Amino acid sequence: MDYSYDTELEEMCPGFFKRTVQNNKRYTCAESQDCKIDKTQRKRCPFCRFQKCLNVGMRLEAVRADRMRGGRNKFGPMYKRDRALKQQKKALIRASGLKMETTPPLLSSPQTDYIFNTTLPVPTPKTSHPNVGTTLAPVDYEHSLYASSSLGLSVPFSAHTPLPAQYPYPPLPGRAIKSEYPDHYTSSEHYTSASSPESVPGYTYVDQTQVSISPTGTTPGLTVPALVLEFVRCEQDELQVQNKISTHLAHLQQEQSPRSTVANQEQNVRHAAKPERLTTFGLMCHMADQTLFSIVEWARGCIFFKELKVGDQMKLLHNCWSELLVLDYIARQLHHGKAESVLLITGQEVTPVEFTTLLAQAGVTLSGMIQRGQELVHRLQELQLDRRETACLKYLILFNPDVKLLENQSYVENVYEQVNAALLEYTLCVYPQYPDRFSQILMRLPELRALSAQSEDYLCYKHLSGEVPCNNLLIEMLHAKRTCI
DNA sequence: ATAGCCTTGAGC
DNA sequence: GCTCAAGGCTAT
């Protein structure tokens, strides 16, 4: 890392950033995640220090997965340019009292050209990517797991393709050697200089149906990257999932209720070790368990994921299941939009009073985690994260390029980069007034990771004390993750 | 765990 | 051949 950046970056210690990323460290903040980080107090809160590193523009991708030494990355100049732009902007603001809403420098004319001058060779979704919900065999939520291939991934999949070449963003020649971010999408060079023909990612889809709901209100024709549209198309029908899960849980509660019939009770004695009434925590476990099933089902139908071999699919899911669960919860609250109540996957609303009672009943750890989740919801609410961005985040989490021992590592890395590029493009197109929206969104991922890690630890602890219902996919995932890493 | 110094190597 | 951003090593 270069230690001679501007004063802010100097203070941030790139060595700390490198260690954090390389060792996959997870910090937590004892305060409210806004600790002041400066030269003298930087060691007090590593969580906030890491956040500030990201804020200042350090990139996770700059820490090389392959640990190759030497050479130069593709976004070196970007740091400098960004810094120059920021300083320019600051100077402008200081001099003329202008606000941050001034035309973002990233969206100068070359950028506009890159969005509007292009055509779209999108594979016709209806034929090449049939609707997930209708074509895949439905997952048997109760019985399909717990066998050898517990994720239900053993169904025949299409032949393995080495690279998603048919998809918009072409793989870069250097990719196989170094794990770097494609400069086309990150370097400011792309936006500020006249692009060479091959550096123009020419695949952007004009989504005519969305023009009227343009968040900017000024976009002449909202341009959404094809990949983002495909992600949204792969989303599950929320009502369907809701029905499935609430039905399942209703059955469970009926079976375990003290008011159940004698016959039912006898059945319970035969089939379960403890036919006692389900605790709130137990119920939540079942809910999370069922949500996880639906996440696996979603992944199975996902573009890119379904091209992978089952082994790699399992590894990716084992790595990120808890993050996807946390994101699922958070996204539901975000789109629910009612700050005062919590929406469950079953469609039930937890009122503020009930929520307070729940928090009081839960232990310190659990209530802390729930509150941490709510804080994350608030932060994303401030950003007004939209559904398309949420969809992109799911893919960024699923295709984690840090997962090791994959049969097709480069494919996963490539997909990750494509998703990154698509999200960047999307935010720049749709929210041009917030040029740093992309990094603002990505900045929330470490906290999401930290929270999911804490949830895993907590689940493990609860499992060891025998409080997690048996035959639970959560536990199976926990085991799989901890034995394979 | 941190941070300073050294080595490496792609790109100019 | 120089630059500079990456990783490695090591004293603290």
At the first level of CATH, the class of the domain at 228-255 and 278-484 is: Mainly Alpha
The helix-and-strand class reads mainly alpha
Helix content: 40-55%
CATH fold-type name of the domain at 228-255 and 278-484: Retinoid X Receptor
- Uncertain spans, ≥5 residues at pLDDT below 50? 1-12, 76-150, 154-221, 258-275
**Discrete helix count:** 21
Please, could you describe this protein's structure?
This protein has 485 residues and is mainly alpha-helical. Among the domains are: 65 residues, 2-Layer Sandwich (Erythroid Transcription Factor GATA-1, Chain A), CATH 3.30.50.10; 235 residues, Orthogonal Bundle (Retinoid X Receptor), CATH 1.10.565. The protein has 21 helices and 4 strands. Strands 1-2 form a two-stranded antiparallel ribbon. Strands 3-4 form a two-stranded antiparallel sheet. A hairpin with a 5-residue loop joins β3 and β4. The longest helix is centred in the middle third of the chain and has 27 residues. The radius of gyration is 24 Å and the shape is globular. The N terminus is likely disordered. The chain binds a DNA duplex (12 and 12 nucleotides) through α2.
